[in-house]
TrEMBL record:
This is Catalytic LigB subunit of aromatic ring-opening dioxygenase. Residues 2-236 form the Extradiol ring-cleavage dioxygenase class III enzyme subunit B domain. Belongs to the DODA-type extradiol aromatic ring-opening dioxygenase family. Keywords: Dioxygenase, Metal-binding, Oxidoreductase, Zinc. Its cofactor is Zn(2+). InterPro entries: Extradiol_dOase_DODA, Xdiol_dOase_suB. The keyword Nucleotide-binding does not apply. Transmembrane segments: none annotated. GO terms for molecular function: ferrous iron binding; oxidoreductase activity, acting on single donors with incorporation of molecular oxygen, incorporation of two atoms of oxygen; zinc ion binding. The keyword Transmembrane helix does not apply.
Amino acid sequence: MNHLPSLYISHGSPMTALQPGLTGTRLAELAAALPRPRAIVVASAHYLARSPLVGGAGQPSTVHDFGGFPQELYELQYPAPGDPGLAARIANRLDQAGLPAQVDPQRGLDHGIWVPLRLMYPKADIPVVPLSIQPMLGPAHQYALGQALAGLGGEGVLLIGSGSITHNLHDFRAGYDADHEAPYVRPFIEWVEQRLAQGDTAALLDYRRQAPFAERAHPTDEHLLPLFVAHGAAGEGARAQRLDAGVDLGFLAMDIYRFDAAA
């Protein structure tokens, strides 16, 4: 079986489901380039808990965890099956790594999961297992979470961290658009790309002190934290490849990262 990489996806606004643009093109291209997964595990910026939770529903619901959008968006469904057995195995692996985890048998698929997966695997015929992040515990904890799941790619399981490489919704009414980009976006995404290319994990884990405009790009951590899960899951010496999917609304950078394990 071919070894799957781990991925970090910037899922953007829920409207990406209706207006996929360049993000939709990049995600479809990426899915076409990968071996078909037997299952998908997604650590979402919208699944937050104090300790690790793993979604174990046999048929997870499509969760419309947003308000004020067109009715058409609320009618979209992503009826992918779950995989309770895989969820239990993941929880066990986390336990063994000193990260006590529980299975949540009711957890559905939030928009950080189903929006990008609709663009990658529109048939919704691959089992999906949600994984929570712990925003109060910071980047190093999420990196350890990913490390505990290293090797899943060799079993045909695609691990995805879903967030946003820049995410400051306070800028929604700041007048930014396709022709007037927020000044912090490029310096921040370039710094992340350079640190990943150099394998400078220590700097990345300390991004809030070291990255330019870190607090402007991420007033809170949760949308960048899935990057560390995906990075950790790829193992030591993994190669990071950035896929540029543009900048939505002038301030939401839509970068995608593919992490391939070292040969």
